[in-house]
Amino acid sequence: MGKLRDQLQAAQIAREKYELRHAELLERGARADREQSLTLILSGLAAFYLAVRFGATKQLDAIGTYTSYLFEISLVVIAFSLLRPKLSLKALMRPWTLVTAVIALFAGAAVNKAAALAGLTIQMDIKSKETVFFLLAVAPILEELVFRFLLFASLDRSFGSKNAWFVTSVLFSYSHLHAIWFVPPEYSKFIIYQTAYTFPLALVCGYMVRKKSSLLSAILIHASFNLGFYFAFMT
Predict the structure, then answer these.
(1) Domain range holding 150?
(2) Number of helices and strands (H, E) in the chain?
(3) What is the pLDDT of residues 132-153, one digit of tens each?
(4) Which of 58, 130, 135, 228 would be 109's cystine partner, CB 3.0–4.6 Å?
């Protein structure tokens, strides 16, 4: 009887191990399915954004002055609800973030002064309160959320972080060049200049997301660059 009891206990243990292993495999498969579905949804959002942002610019602007911003905000909100990223304020106080932000501040000022020395006409009324608000607040936050969050997350899942870093930097730079088709000819040279200097800015901001996992640091650096640009214009 003792031997039979031991065999029954061993069989019960084996069965429990099998059921546990089976449950783990099912859960792993379910997680893989959820991740695949999430990747497809994010890819769809990214493709939809790019198609509308670069393929239907006139139609979007024709709806209303702030329609493009509302469009971007809606997609970012959807991405946030899906990914629920953790935003750490501690990263903003780290030395590498603060040093980079200071460098970005001076870089923004230098870019503005170089444009003035070259005689480039800037296509914005920098004295307008609305322009200042969008330059210092809306642009750094919304552009980083679109390029270093929505698009980066989608491309990272499909092609890896290195490719996502480079491609989003190119797209960010091109998003400024894209305006060349909709502005008067006298602004064309500045648009090309802007396209050139926004690429390294995008690389730095993308690095903060890729290597430091800090979206807030990317926003701070972008805002610092724009702040330097603004101060140089006002002095």
Answers:
(1) 2-234
(2) 10, 0
(3) 999 999 999 999 999 999 999 9
(4) 228
